[in-house]
Amino acid sequence: MPLEHDKVIQDLTTNGRLRASVNLGNPILVQIADNGDGVQGVTVDLARGLAAQLDVPLELVKFSSAGLVFDALKRDELDVVFLAIEPARAKEIDFTAPYVLIEGNYAVWEDRPIGSSAEIDAADNTIAVVEGAAYDLYLSRTIKHATLLRLASHEDALCAFIEQKLTAVAGIRQPMLDFANSGPGLRLIETPFMTIRQAMGIPKGRMAGFRYVSRFVGEARRSGFIAESLARSARAAFGLRRDQILKVLVTGFRRLSWWRFGMTSSAGALQSNSISVKVIARVRFPWPRDRAARRHPLCGIGSPRPAAVSIA
Question: How far apart are CA 53 and CA 216, in angstroms?
């Protein structure tokens, strides 16, 4: 159907090229390439796969946070984005079904009498978050009593938590777990406060393009493309060398409805109701992007950069 194909190209490209977002603030989905030049991960693989299927050039546009991705889309600077589904974003974006579910957790001080995520929502408590992140948007809707301190980056949020002795810092589970394990006096609240539904999206109202991208994501799940990409991402995120991987198990290739990404201290696990991919390593690896922030004395150099705009 030439007319439908032309409409898809019109919806998904600008000046003949596909402009896709890359959020460097989510190391589960995007990693810096081994040679330090370029990016890799499931976001990059999906963007390249879509561009190849459309037979158009790809422009990867890098951002340091999800909030900046959303702002750029509203300025018509992107054709396809990779973001968590949130009501505030859904006003501007048509989202596909989620392809990854990521847990959001709190890290707190060990000596604070906090037993669950719900207990953090109390008067006089302050939570450090990255401004515009999915968990910031979620907590902005659901927190009734605690105060949210919004900062420009994950590292800034960690440092603000340490320097200001805040009640909690929120983030993706694995960086929060590694931060909690980085030194004495910290711990992770095991019960997640939310599940982040990661999806592809395009500017609202481009229906031919949306139908095409939705089919693309569905086929990427069914074919195992996402499974293979996420297994590579787990290796990259943990800094694993080929000789450090004991085994990669891929089972249950049936109909995929969604992905769940969970981590343990010694293994990466990708799970859904019909597929499981496990990467088991010989040793525990720290989360690379947090190394500087986890060295607590470095947080005293300068001060955290609060976000310029708060999203209430």
Answer: 9
19 DSSP β-pair partners: 59
pLDDT in tens, 174-218: 889 989 998 789 999 999 999 999 999 999 999 999 999 999 999
Q: For residues 199 and 95, is the Cβ–Cβ distance under 8 A?
A: yes
pLDDT in tens, 142-155: 999 999 999 998 88
3-state secondary structure the chain: CHHHHHHHHHHHCECCEEEEEEECCCCCCCEECCCCCCEECHHHHHHHHHHHHHCCCEEEEEECCHHHHHHHHHCCCCCEEEEECCHHHHCCEEECCCCEEEEEEEEEECCCCCCCHHHHCCCCCEEEEECCCHHHHHHHHHCCCCEEEEECCHHHHHHHHHHCCCCEEEEEHHHHHHHHCCCCCEEECCCCCEEEEEEEEEECCCHHHHHHHHHHHHHHHHHCHHHHHHHHHHHHHHCCCHHHEEEEEEECCCCCCCCEEEECCCEEEEECCCCEEEEEECCCCCCHHHHHHHCHHHHHCCCCCECCCCCC
Domain residue spans of the chain: 101-194+289-300
Identify the top-confidence range among 200-209, 229-238, 270-279.
200-209
Q: Between 32 and 186, where is the model more confident? A: 186
295 pLDDT more than 70: no
Confidence at 222, pLDDT banded by 50, 70, 90: very high
Q: 101-194+289-300, superfamily in CATH?
A: Periplasmic binding protein-like II (3.40.190.10)
Burial label, 165 (beta-carbon count in 10 A; 0-12, 13-18, 19+):
exposed
Provide the pLDDT for residue 162. Answer: 94
Rounded to two decimals, the pTM is 0.72
The closest alpha carbon to 236, from 21, 40, 9, belongs to 40
